[in-house]
Amino acid sequence: DAKTTQPPSMDCAEGRAANLPCNHSTISGNEYVYWYRQIHSQGPQYIIHGLKNNETNEMASLIITEDRKSSTLILPHATLRDTAVYYCIVWRVNQFYFGTGTSLTVIP
Amino acid sequence: DSGVTQTPKHLITATGQRVTLRCSPRSGDLSVYWYQQSLDQGLQFLIQYYNGEERAKGNILERFSAQQFPDLHSELNLSSLELGDSALYFCASSAGTELSYTFGSGTRLTVV
Question: In A, which residues are within 8 Å of B40 by CB distance?
Fold first, then answer.
C-alpha cells in the first residue's frame, strides 16, 4: 500500500497559517500527492495535488521536499471553517489510499 | 452540491438483512468509486466501476457487491449485515482523471 503518515491532530489560531506535515517515504517517482479534507462527516473535498514542484491554488499551498519523501500543506490564513480532518494521500492504480489524517482545529 | 448524489442519506437495518445503496455520478463522469468509512477510521476503498465494467477492487467483503448500470448510476449491495458493517459509505465519481474525483455526501448505515 502507498502509505502516508500524518500527525493525528493539530491546533491553529484563527488568522494564522496552518502547516500540516505528511510523510510519504514509499512514494514512487510518478505518483502524485493529493490533499483532501473532510468536514464533520461530509464527503471529502479536494484541496490540491502535486508531483515534484510546489503548488498553490486559491485554497492552499503544497510544499514537496526535493526527495519527495514528505510534503506540507499550508493554509495561509486559517478560519474556523477550516476545522476538518485533512488527508494526505497518494493516487495509485485507480484508487486513493486514505490514512487516518490530521484533525485540524482552528481556535478563535 | 458536488453533483454526486447518494441515496438514502440514512439507513437503519437489522443484522442479517440486505440493503442497497445508490449513487448517481456527476453528469458526464464514467467512473464510480465506493468507499467505506467506519467510526473514527479513514476511508477504505471498496470497488471502482468504469462505464459499466469493474475496473479495480479494494478491501471489499464477499458479502458486498456492486454494479454500474447503462445510465451510469451505481448500486452497492450489502448482504448478511453485521454490526461491524455500520459505517459511512461514500461514492465518488470521475471523468477518468483523478483531478475530477468528486465525492458524494454519503450514506450512513446503522446495523442494529
Answer: 100
Distance from C-alpha of B107 to C-alpha of B105, rounded to nearest angstrom: 7
Cβ of residue A35 closer than 8 Å to a chain B Cβ: no
Per DSSP bridges, beta strands B53-57 and B19-24 are unpaired
Q: Which residues contact A3 (CB under 8 A, 6 or more apart)?
A: A24, A26, A97, A99
Could you give the 3-state DSSP secondary structure of residue A4?
coil
Going through B16-94 in order, the beta strands assigned E by DSSP cover 19-24, 31-37, 44-50, 53-57, 64-68, 74-78, 87-94
d(CA A53, CA A87): 19
Nearest CA in chain A to B47: A95
Q: Are B18 and B109 in contact (CB under 8 A)?
A: no
pLDDT digits (tens, 9 = 90+) for A10-69: 999 999 999 999 998 888 878 889 999 999 889 999 999 999 889 999 999 999 999 999
